[in-house]
Amino acid sequence: MIESIQFNKVIPNVFVGSPPEGGPTDVWDQVLTFKRGESCLIEAASGRGKSSFCSFLYGLRKDFVGSIDYFNHKGETLHVTDAMLCEMRCRSIAMMFQEHRIFPELTAVENVMLKNQLTNYFTEQEIRERLSALGLEDRLDRPCQRLSIGQQQRVAFVRLLAQPADFILLDEPVSHLDIVNAELMGKMLRQRQMEEGAAVIVTSIGHRLPYDYDRILKL
Question: Which residues lie closer than 8 Å to 45 by C-beta, 6 or more apart?
Answer without folding.
Answer: 22, 205
